[in-house]
Write a structure and sequence with these properties.
The complex is a heterotrimer of chains A (339), B (364) and C (382). Chain A has 339 residues and is an alpha/beta fold. In chain A, 37% of the residues lie in helices and 16% in strands. In chain B, helix 5 packs across helix 14, helix 10 runs antiparallel to helix 11 and helix 11 crosses helix 13. Chain B is mostly helical. The chains are: A alpha/beta (339), B mainly alpha (364), C alpha+beta (382).
Chain lengths: 339, 364, 382
């Protein structure tokens, strides 16, 4: 009775006691809770944005689903928590979310000083600039003296400052707290250009009244490897996140798709057998179900499918694979062997 | 922002110098007056013409974004199509009857609570023990066969109302305790209360919200997390309690010292004197400014959008930014939001004036 | 157990419990936080203040480059906050005074209009207004290429207002010295003249003399020395106007929003203050033959001021705190800069502590100044 009262009080307070012992590992916590809590952005079409029925869709959201599928065998056991650039790292540090999958660049200082670790790069990106076609500009170097819109506190603002310092040009930086405000200011002509990761620019362009009126300039002024992040000092959880991502890549390499995964269970290829849990007990080593690989592919498909479905050429974003093609197709997507 | 509203809540009385002039001469009595009147009329007509043209004549009443893009007037299809989203946010579509019911229940409870005859300690108790839990269960679900809805999906108008109503209800007891502590003759307790009240009143609400959403999680022991909505709510409660404490302190000072002394000479101890004699008198006096404070807090809840909660202003803004309506219906969206905030704030303001009259006539 | 009923013992007991509780909670939070930070290897301390900021602040009240330190960036934020709050308080007070007097007008139409103005401003959240003003500015005004040329050298566009800027080239310090010296002398003369007028009861030309003293040194300097003022006219650059003084829309929207909200409150405060002055004062002045305007200026307002100051203090404190809403529309005030720093360094606790401390210190300063002024105008019992 007392216990029940206590838990009602806790529920009313919104207090979540994650696990009993304070030293519970993230995996135990997640399993006890029955769902993965994944931090995403709220409204970035292609990466994470709710559809008409309120279901979160996008590349980052599918990364969350693949981890949930690895843990629970069901990609829908995810609670998506919208985070903004202010709250994303703190949400992870404090344990509010289990993994952050939000177009976050892996950098040295974040890795070293924020108390978190990064998984494998899921998306090789770089910062670019977008301008209206009517501006008649074909290179970022011509943008000296222009006003440029961006978000605060991201690596983006620093990169653009560095870029113009390097070419000794002046510019006006217009900073907005919210992506919405940032976008609206650019479309209304408050700024000549908007700068962000190229993937994000594609997403911004996709919601323009007439996307064809805008071009992304050729320069890539920074390296932005986007990776999921998790709390430091929990190797088991880090392994689960990393291998869930690598499995997506390995599956593409082996031609395993959401559609043919059941067939592939019977494959003779020993690599495929190991990945899907038909032979050996790789899943157990991670503390997961042995069928984890099968579950991941069954719920989200392989890396290529995730890419094409959310941001690929058939979508509004219309991104080509580029550096995000498999290593044997000229890109950088490369998974360590799963064995 | 909060203390803005409590200032100068005196009912609009005719200026003491306004002599009783005839209807006509009030407007056109002197040449100066005539000019002022004519200018005012011209201004009113001009604005009315603009508004009518925009709201009705040039407005678009059906169709989609394309039709609105060419028209110069208001875009009503936007409001019609987006209204439900603006009100409920991302709350699951099929379950939206629950926040609606919660809103109606809240309005009903408020309506009852607004009648001075029903005021009692039990009413406050009823709010804390019955009404707020019922609202919570309606919204959150998980029992009685209601599908659980995580607070991350709450949004829109219900969120704005819950934040301000729950905030003020729960801040009330805390604020009263703080006021008593500040008036206490125990130095340590007084210093603590003064410190808390002055610190909270010296910083902007946004900084306390930041503290609650960004900083507080780092202060929690391992494995304990507090829901983000609850953190923002706690921030609002703490913030409100400091302002309530100051209002209640004003009320306490208005109670004549003889009341304390009389109570003590009857052999009552401190808490009995406070509960049975001083507080009832003090609290009645501070209800009108408290309503004013509430208007301020209702408006202040809009600040939670900065820390990433989806309140009514935030749902309106994301509706405006919807790709389909991008740059078309900005004014429409903000006007709808402003109308909603205005209606509720003005109602509360009118209520506050009613209370003042009520007290002037019944308790003077 | 008689000592339980001992008042003195109980007093101590309550205090010890309260202080103990606060200390315990504080200590627990501090211990958990430092434990969490250490365990997760999150950086702590204020070392980051001396690191280079690396970001640009376009609208800076004091000079700032990306190579300056984070500490200086925060100073820029403070300066920006103070700048916009002071201007908003000033414009808001002037406007509010006018609206407050209009509220008391004998013309019912004007009084009603003023009431509508006040109600519209007070019943809609300031944040909503800020969004609205900003959206209107950037949507209704033309892009900078088609900027409206209002006056020669004055351009208005959705990138803001650009006006010619004046630079004093030589003799700037001499000019400044003359201005300050003239102002000080004029002030002293005015005070002395007022005192004499009160003592003798005769009006004198103190105001005129003071004005002369104020302007004389500057004129003299100009005649003797001459100083060259350089005008920097905005010119059309490749994308936007270069040169001149640039007032950005983020600043305008914030200033406008804050000033309007101040004006509505000031109007109500002024009205309440004037109404609180005894009706007999009006009648007495009328009996002395003073006109309505003069009565207001000489008799009623000075008395109303005493009632007005405390709530006015609150309004100024409020506008100062509300300037933190700048973050919503991209004006780099203290909170916005701190926020950028917080995102860059990940040191939330330190950054939030800094900006809360600054707000607290400035709030207390404002309160002290206003209290001093209040004591200055308070009724002096003779």
């Amino acid at each position: 009775m007392k216990q029940a009262l206590l838990s009602i009080c806790a529920a009313a307070l919104g207090l979540t006691m994650a696990g009993q012992a304070s030293a519970a590992s993230t995996l135990e916590t997640v399993k006890a809770r029955g769902k993965l809590v994944c931090g995403v952005s709220l409204a970035t079409p292609g990466f994470a944005a709710p559809d008409d029925k309120g279901r979160m869709q996008g590349f980052d959201a599918d990364i969350c689903r693949s981890i949930a599928a690895a843990v629970f065998g069901d990609g829908d056991k995810v609670e998506f928590v919208p985070t903004n650039i202010n709250t994303r790292f703190q949400a992870l540090q404090s344990g509010e979310i289990d993994v952050l999958s939000r177009q976050t660049t892996h950098t040295f200082s974040r890795d070293a000083s924020l108390g978190l670790d990064f998984g494998p790069t899921v998306f090789y990106d770089g910062q670019g600039l977008m301008v209206p076609k009517s501006l008649g500009v074909s290179s970022a170097k011509e943008l000296t003296e222009a006003a440029i819109c961006t978000l605060p506190g991201t690596t983006t603002a620093q990169n653009i400052s560095d870029f113009f310092r390097a070419i000794n040009g002046k510019f006006e930086l217009v900073v907005f707290e919210s992506p919405d405000e940032n976008r609206a200011a650019f479309y209304s002509g408050r700024c000549e250009a908007i700068t962000s990761d190229r993937s994000d620019l594609a997403s911004i362009r996709a919601v323009a009244n007439n996307p064809a009126d805008y071009i992304v300039l050729p320069e890539t002024i920074s390296k932005e490897p986007l990776a999921p992040a998790f709390r430091q000092n929990d190797s088991q959880w880090g392994d689960i996140v990393s291998w869930s991502v690598w499995l997506l890549m390995a599956a593409e390499e082996k031609g395993i798709t959401q559609a043919n995964v059941d067939e592939k269970l019977k494959s003779e290829d020993p690599d495929v057998q190991r990945m899907l849990g038909a032979t050996e007990e790789l899943g157990k080593m991670l503390g997961l179900d042995n069928k984890w690989g099968y579950n991941v592919i069954k719920s989200v498909g392989n890396y290529g499918e995730v890419f094409e479905r959310n941001v690929g050429e058939g979508t509004k974003l219309g991104l080509t694979r580029g550096p995000n093609a498999l290593w044997n197709a000229g890109g950088m997507i490369y998974s360590p062997p799963i064995r | 922002m909060a203390d803005v509203q409590m200032l100068a809540l005196a009912p609009p009385q005719p200026a003491p110098t306004a002599q009783r002039l005839g209807k006509f001469s009030a407007y056109f009595g002197t040449p100066g007056n005539t000019i002022v009147s004519l200018l005012s009329i011209a201004g009113i007509l001009f604005i009315a013409k603009l508004a009518f043209g925009w709201l009705v004549i040039d407005a678009v009443f059906s169709g989609a974004g394309e039709a609105c893009k060419v028209a110069s007037g208001a875009c009503w299809p936007f409001v019609a199509q987006k209204l439900r989203y603006m009100v409920f946010g991302f709350y699951p579509y099929e379950e939206q009857w629950r926040p609606l019911l919660a809103l109606l229940l809240l309005f009903g409870a408020c309506g009852v609570s607004m009648v001075p005859r029903f005021w009692s300690r039990n009413l406050l108790l009823a709010w804390i023990v019955v009404i707020l839990p019922v609202l919570y269960i309606l919204m959150a679900g998980g029992v009685f066969g209601l599908t659980p809805v995580p607070t991350t999906s709450w949004g829109g108008l219900p969120l704005s109302f819950l934040l301000s109503f729950i905030g003020l209800t729960l801040a009330m007891p805390l604020g009263i305790v703080l006021a008593l502590a500040r008036a206490s003759n125990l130095p340590a307790i007084r210093v603590l209360a003064v410190g808390f009240i002055e610190i909270v009143r010296g910083v902007p609400l946004i900084s306390i919200l930041f503290m609650a959403t960004v900083m507080l999680p780092l202060f929690m022991p391992d494995g304990v997390t507090i829901d983000k909505l609850v953190r923002a709510q706690v921030a609002i409660i703490l913030f409100a309690s400091a302002y309530i404490a100051e209002i209640v302190r004003g009320g306490l000072q208005d109670v004549p010292a003889g009341q304390h002394e009389a109570g003590k000479s009857l052999g009552l101890h401190y808490w009995q004197v406070m509960r049975k004699i001083v507080l009832p008198q003090a609290l009645k006096k501070v209800i009108p400014p408290m309503v004013g404070l509430f208007i301020g807090f209702f408006q202040d809840t809009t600040l939670v959008t900065i820390v990433g909660l989806v309140d009514f202003l935030d749902t309106v803004r994301s509706a405006i930014r919807d790709p389909e309506w991008q740059g078309i219906a900005v004014l429409e969206g903000y006007l709808v939001a402003a109308a909603v905030y205005f209606t509720f704030s003005a109602l509360m303001g009118a209520y506050s004036r009613f209370l003042e009259n009520h007290f002037r006539t019944t308790h003077a | 157990m008689t000592f339980l009923h001992d008042m003195r013992f109980r007093a101590y007991f309550y205090q010890v419990v309260a202080v103990g509780f606060v200390v315990l909670v504080g200590w627990t939070m501090f211990a958990t936080a430092s434990g969490n930070l250490a365990k997760q290897n999150i950086a702590t301390g204020f070392d980051f203040l001396t690191r280079p900021a690396g970001f640009v602040i376009t609208e800076a009240a004091i000079a700032f480059e990306a190579t300056d330190t984070i500490g200086r960036a925060i100073l820029v934020g403070i300066a920006n906050t103070v700048k916009v709050s002071l201007l908003a308080a000033f414009f808001g007070t002037v406007l509010g005074l006018a609206v407050g007097i209009a509220r008391m007008s004998r013309n019912p139409l004007l009084a009603r209009l003023a009431l509508v103005y006040v109600e519209l401003l007070r019943n809609v959240p300031l944040l909503l207004y800020l969004f609205l003003w900003y959206s209107l500015i950037i949507l209704i005004l033309p892009p900078v290429k088609q900027a409206l040329n209002l006056l020669p050298g004055v351009y208005l566009s959705n990138s803001g207002l650009v006006v010619p800027a004046a630079f004093v080239e030589s003799g700037g310090y001499a000019l400044l010295a003359c201005l300050l010296g003239g102002a000080a002398a004029a002030f002293l003369i005015r005070v002395a003249a007022t005192r004499k007028r009160v003592a003798t009861g005769r009006s004198n030309h103190g105001g005129l003399i003071a004005l002369g003293v104020l302007l004389a040194p500057v004129l003299l300097l100009w005649l003797v020395n001459g100083f060259s003022v350089n005008w920097d006219f905005p010119t059309a650059g490749k994308f936007r106007l270069t040169g001149g003084l640039h007032v950005r829309p983020e600043f305008v929207a914030l200033l406008f929003g804050l000033a309007l909200s101040v004006s509505a409150n000031v109007a109500e405060i002024v009205r309440a203050g004037i109404q609180a002055v005894n009706k007999g004062q009006w009648e007495a002045s009328a009996a002395l033959g003073l006109a309505r305007g003069k009565t207001m200026r000489l008799v009623v307002l000075p008395q109303a001021l005493r009632i007005i100051i405390p709530p006015l203090t609150n309004t100024y404190l409020t506008v100062f705190k509300n300037s933190s809403l700048a973050i919503a529309i991209g004006y780099p005030d203290l909170v916005m800069v701190s926020n950028t720093v917080m995102n860059q360094t990940g040191q939330a606790i330190e950054t939030i502590a800094i900006f809360m401390g600054v707000y607290l210190a400035l709030s207390i300063t404002i309160s002290l100044v206003m209290n001093w002024y209040n004591a200055h105008v308070a009724l002096k019992e003779r």
